[in-house]
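Example record used in the benchmark description.
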Amino acid sequence: MLDRDHWGWNWSAAKEAYEILFRTGAVTSAGRTPQFERLYSSLSRVLPADVVAQMQSPPTDRECFDYLLRVSIKALGIATADDLLDYFRLRGPVARGVLDELVLAGVMDEVEVKGPGPRYLLDPQAKRPRKLEARALLSPFDSLVWHRPRAEQLFDFRYRLEIYTPAAKRVYGYYVLPFLLRERIVGRVDLKADRPAGVLQVKAVHWEPEAPGDAMAELNEELELMA
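Model output (structure tokens):
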């Protein structure tokens, strides 16, 4: 019988040691195998020499938080403090202190948003288009919906991944992708890839109450692209 004691999430002692080295920057990732196993390598084999040299005097936690929060506000445009901290999974009082310092320094502006709720912070250089022409089937791990409270605050869209929910208790399906159309998330689609047959199956489509009349036609085009 095949020994699976050290397979998948059942890490061996060697795997645990490598992960500690990876997280502390002593080694890095050189990719993954077809089985999604991480490949480890020395820094010099993967990273440019100037990057390796910079790692000899690593930045402080405060400097890291400062950099990551600046990236977060550029990526999100407008966000709550929790949204910004969650973008890179930042935790602790130091991170929140740095965020307050960035607001005081004018790196992001505090703005009012209609209705009750938390304060919002805005990238002063964020573009403000009159309208958006976006259209996409979003992965459950897309940054637009990954932080579920943000999706609910901005789009009034409650989204939960039901992969681990028993089939009889699922509301929308097994692997459901939100459908973004222009400025709103207008529906969700339960998809399955039948790879042997080369077919993308649409198990179900669920529309939001305010989905526009052209939503189905737009979704059909997006499904063609995904297929």
